[in-house]
Amino acid sequence: MRRYPHAEKILKKALESWKLIDKAETDTLEGDYLTIMNILGSLYDEVGRFSKAEKFYLDVLHIYVNREENNPNMYRRQTAMVLNNLGTLYFKIGKLDESTRALKKALGIRENIAIGNKEMNDADVAQSLHNLGVLYDIKNDNLKAREYYMNALKMRKTLSRENVDRYSSEYASTLAKLGSTYVRSKEYEKAEGCFIEALNEYRMLADKYPLSYTKDVISTLNGLGIMYRQNSRYQDAEKVFIEAVEKSKQMLLWLDAAAATNNLSIILSCDKALDNSRKLLELSILFFGRKKI
Q1: Start-to-end CA span in the chain (Å)
Q2: Which domain holds residue 78?
Q3: How many domains does the chain have?
Q4: Distance, CA of 175 to CA of 122 (rounded, Å)
Q5: Structure pTM?
Q6: Considering just the CA atoms, what is the radius of gyration of the chain in Å?
Q7: What is the pLDDT of residues 101-110, one digit of tens each?
């Protein structure tokens, strides 16, 4: 995130300003304060400053849990949101037991809330199910991961049909993850179906919002190509890897171009393609370094 220092500065200034407000007014503004803390935690999470992210998440969670005792209807959803954030942070840093507890607790809260307002909270439940699928992927429990992905997929499919722009990317993400579980169990026909449907969803979104979703198209093409390669469908693999390379270059995504070219070199057993991959990787490192400056 190239504008991370600027965002961090603004959020920290907002927190300091809140602390100067007359305490008589804080009850009505505390929600804003907690939102800022959670956003700052998410910012640190996104840029890999996990210890700082964990601290902000835990501080916010402590406040929400205390407030929930007096007003559960107001704070349960926020509590679940922070637990979900903590759970995903923990699986990134290898704290899998802590991740399991946080994500399952978040799911339990969200499922309970959804009983009273299903439409509004299905997206939250689906998010928790998807994240638990990712967790069990990391644990190498393929069957458990698939179970969570399939349950998330049912909900996200319905949501995506109701609001394409908002939920189709989430539906496609779960499709691709489910496809990967089928690759690992060598159920290639099912894997192909998931990847192609995910690819169609991302293509549709990328046509409207290329800057936001072309990278997802490229990632899914690479996943599909790797599946074809494992299944000895080399011509199909070559075709999708070439498309991934071309799209990466069009969007100046040099690291993605290098990865796709490397995948292509494996298919072709071609020194020239491998050399091109190295050159693209060098270009991506140079470009990234300049952007940071």
Answers
A1: 12
A2: 7-116
A3: 1
A4: 17
A5: 0.84
A6: 22
A7: 999 999 999 9
